[in-house]
Amino acid sequence: MAKCLVCNSSYDSFISFGRQPLANGFLLEKDFGKEYFFDMKVGFCSNCKMVQLVEQPNREQMFHENYAFYSSTSSYMVKHFEKFSETLLSRYVKSPDSFVVEMGSNDGIMLQNFAKKGIKHLGIEPSANVAQVARERGVNTVVEFFDSNLARKIVSQDGQADAFFASNVMCHIPYIGSIVEGVKILLKPSGVMAFEDPYLGDIIDKTSYDQIYDEHVFFFSLLSVSHVFEKYGMELIDIEPQITHGGSMRYFLANKGAYQVSNRVKEQINLEKEIGLEKMDVYQKFASNVKKSKDDLLEILRKIKSEGKTVIGYGATSKSTTIMNYCGITPDLIDYISDTTPIKQGKFSPGMHIPVKSYEHFVKKKPDYALLFAWNHKEEIRSKEKDYCNAKGKWITHVPNVHIYC
Ligand code: DWN
Ligand code: ZN
Questions:
Q1: CA of 74 to the centre of ligand 1 (A)
Q2: Is residue 339 lining ligand 1, measured as CB closer than 6 Å?
Q3: What confidence category does residue 212 fall into, taking pLDDT thresholds of 50, 70 and 90?
């Protein structure tokens, strides 16, 4: 039995993905023998309702000066964060003298919107290479991991903040309690925290098991998020479901009593109870759906290969690492993965060692089938890949079930 990272209760795992490498550990051939693997299992704590990884690699192994994911690789996400900044500016960051802080600010995709308006801001980003891109965009960034000590330091230098946000970051940090402690120190009494992450309800509903990889230690629901923040005198004041990353939830939190709580919070919690997110059964069913998804995907890939067709992967996502290593997708099933990120190109995928090639390679070769690893960007990719479809190229996806489409 494992111990819950939030409440220290004992809990059981409900699914195992076997030996997994670092999801963003794209590597050169000379480093094949030095790869790090861990046993990836997920469990559910019935006490605080948190779904979590049983084991996670150290943060420095995952986030460093060669971090492979740059947030601005999706033009849709650039627009998404522009809109998110407008939401915050219209609701909680109204004064021109406001101060906002973002944890895990990556290449500045969100904070650039505040920087452009001359609003005092600070990005906290542990991966130096992506932080450098943010600085080049005029975003003030420190290369650090956020914690309560850093919160105190920021307050002594810049004062307390009006808003603290984190997108696709909270679910990465196992010591979540001490993050909330830091947020309490950093925020003004009327300050608001806003964060968004892939939503557990969507992961279960779409069998999108590829959201599970080393970096994602938590899979949040309102039930579990409320529990974490309650302990620190904070409460959920509002939520907004998002379509990004295959279905995410945006959470707004504040000191208890500082704001009116939206009806949406209660309604969504009731819905979570209805679909059974507070009981083990739903996770056991998810585990059997995941196994079926794996079998179906392998069947399709083997059939296509037996017909002598070409198959490639589209988007060397973190998520693809879980799919390939869990399903055992070796280079005889997928020729290469196309990705627009220069730092990934010319390297090999973690664990299965499938070559990552440039997007231009995909355009030139036009494979018969492309397995859409970046399925969360499906609409953006569909509109930019009309030529591929016109040339009779087909897509394979595993979400919400394994199927082929054009
Ligand atoms: O939480 C996380 C999310 C926000 O981002 C991190 N832990 C890591 C990362 O996860 P991911 O790698 O699964 O994210 P994406 O956004 O699904 O990655 C898309 C990948 O596909 C990038 O490498 C860029 C590439 N891409 C492409 O080649 N062509 C993306 C698009 C939109 C394209 O058209
Ligand atoms: Zn717990």
A1: 7
A2: yes
A3: very high
